[in-house]
Design goal:
With 227 residues, this protein is an alpha+beta fold. It has a single domain (33-225), classed as outer membrane lipoprotein receptor (LolB), chain A, CATH 2.50.20. The N and C termini lie far apart (70 Å). The chain is globular and about 45 Å long. The strands form two sheets. The protein has a seven-stranded antiparallel β-sheet with strand order 4-3-2-1-12-11-10, with helices on one face. A five-stranded antiparallel β-sheet has the order 5-6-7-8-9, with helices on one face. It contains four helices and twelve strands, in the order H-H-E-E-E-E-H-H-E-E-E-E-E-E-E-E.
Length: 227
């Protein structure tokens, strides 16, 4: 009987010690910015695994393809290849470029911007990012949140231009608008449609204007991952 009483006392003492211990400090959750959330939704966390990406940028006017550029890019070495009609141009973006290569690179930057606009929010330097909640999207007239990237620096090919990205509650971009030299008037607005995910990267492969006459789209997207 005495032994049983001793065991019970020890159990009570142990429980009391456990209850008196301080609770673990709550884990601090690091908040991420809206641009980071948009880029992560588009798969930027998988970008470091990419060895090479190929894609074809097409512009259709009233159902007819008026431009098509086929690209191959190694983001690790920055080697780029363009195939357009009968022409093939190879260059490296880290090297000094001649006039033909500079013209080609303008097209490359434009086409990559259409393919990976969410990533450009993170990648590009010399920019200013602003946000507005509950804005009316220019095409669908839906109420969406908006993030704007303004190119404030002197570098790049479009200093002073602004891009408004309208995104939903899941941080997926649904529309965007281009404003030349940060003008209040929209120069061009398109939809984000036909999303596809390849090797963890998500792309909107179709962009249409409000009247549907212009369709900017991507075909032949291929991603080679690092071994």
């Amino acid at each position: 009987m005495k032994n049983t009483f001793l065991i019970v006392c020890l159990l009570i003492a142990a429980t009391s010690c456990k209850n008196d211990s301080k609770p673990d400090a709550p884990t601090k959750v690091e908040e991420i910015s809206t641009p980071q959330q948009l880029a992560q939704t588009a798969g930027i966390n998988n970008w470091n695994d990419v060895e090479e990406i190929k894609f074809t940028f097409n512009v259709d006017k009233n159902g007819t393809t008026v431009m098509s550029r086929k690209w191959k890019w190694n983001p690790n070495t920055d080697a780029v290849q363009l195939i357009a009609r009968e022409d093939t141009v190879n260059y490296n973006r880290k090297a000094a470029l001649d006039s033909i290569q500079i013209s080609t690179d303008r097209g490359f930057i434009n086409d990559v911007y259409w393919l990976l606009p969410e990533y450009k929010l993170i990648w590009d330097q010399g920019t200013s990012i602003t946000e507005e909640k509950s804005q009316i999207a220019p095409i669908s007239k839906e109420t969406l949140d908006k993030v704007t990237i303004l190119y404030t620096g002197d570098g790049g090919y479009t200093p002073g231009d602004a891009y408004d990205l309208y995104y939903d509650k899941d941080h997926k971009v649904r529309e965007w608008a281009y404003r030349r030299q940060n003008d209040t008037a929209i120069g061009m607005a398109t939809t984000f449609e036909d999303f596809k995910t390849l090797k963890g990267l998500t792309f909107a492969t179709t962009h249409k204007t409000a009247d549907g006459s212009t369709n900017i789209n991507f075909t032949d997207i291929e991603i080679t991952k690092k071994k």
